[in-house]
Amino acid sequence: MPELDLEKNGDVFVVTLDNPSTGNAINTASLSAHREILAELETVKENSAVVVTSSDPKSWCVGLDFDWISEQSEQEFGETFREVEEVFGRWALLSLPTIACITGHCIAGGAFLASVMDFRLMRADRGWFAFTEIDVKIPPSPKLYLMADLLPNKQAVRELLLTGRRVGGDEAQKLGLVDESHLQEKLLPRAMEFAQQLAQKDLETYRKIKHLLKRDLVEQ
C-alpha cells in the first residue's frame, strides 16, 4: 500500500500519511515516499500551502518503526538517523507554508516531524504529543535537537525531552507546542482554512522569512 498520498485542493496540497497499520511509523518505505512527495513539492513555484494529515484517526506518526531498527547494525542505525535528518530537514526548509494537522498520537520521530512544520494544529480529544527518546534509550542527534528547538517554548521542549512526558492537544496548545487544538470534526477543516490563508502570501517572501526563522538549520 502507498505510505503517503498527495492531492491538491485549490491552492492547498494535502499530504496524507497513509499507513494506519503501523501508526505511520518511519521506515524505509515511508522515507522513500516522503522523498517522492518532497521532490514534487520542491518544484512548485506558485503561491500554495501544504497540510500534512493522516488517514489514521488514532495516530499522526508514532516515530521510528521498532521492528525495522531493531534489526539494524550500529552502522545501519547511524545511516537511518542521517536519512531521517535529510527528509525532515527538507520539510523544515520547504518554500511552501506547511501545517501539521495532527490527528492523533504524535510521538518520538513523529514529534520531530511535526516540529519542523511551520504550524501545528492538533486534535483536542485524542492523541499524545511526546518526545519519548529518553524512555526508549535513543537520544536525538544534534540536528534533530535543532528541529525540536524550532518549537517556541524552549522550557517545554527541555522538559519533554528529559522526561518523555505525554501531553494531549489542549495542554500542547497551552505549552505552545501546537498553535491550535480542535475536536476531530473541526480539525481538518480548520487546517484547510488556515492553509488557504497562507497560500495567498507571496511565496518568495515567505521562503526568505522562513529561512531566517530556521537559520540554524539552514547553516547546517
Describe this structure in words.
- This protein is α/β, with parallel strands linked by helices and 220 residues long.
- It has one domain (4-218): 2-enoyl-CoA Hydratase, Chain A, domain 1 (Alpha-Beta Complex), CATH 3.90.226.
- Helices cover 47% and strands 18% of the residues.
- Strands 1-2-3-5-7-9 form a 6-stranded mixed beta sheet, with helices on both faces.
- α1 packs parallel to α3 (74-93).
- The longest helix has 20 residues, at 74-93.
- The N and C termini lie far apart (34 Å).
User: How are helices and strands ordered from N to C?
Assistant: EEHEEHHEEHEEHHHHEHHH
Second CATH tier, the architecture:
Alpha-Beta Complex
Strand order in the largest sheet: 1-2-3-5-7-9
State the fourth-level CATH superfamily. 2-enoyl-CoA Hydratase, Chain A, domain 1
Q: What is the approximate shape?
A: globular
Average pLDDT reading: 95
Poorly predicted runs of 5 or more residues: none
Strand content: 15-25%
> What profile does the largest beta sheet have?
6 strands, mixed
By CATH, the topology is: 2-enoyl-CoA Hydratase, Chain A, domain 1
Number of helices: 11
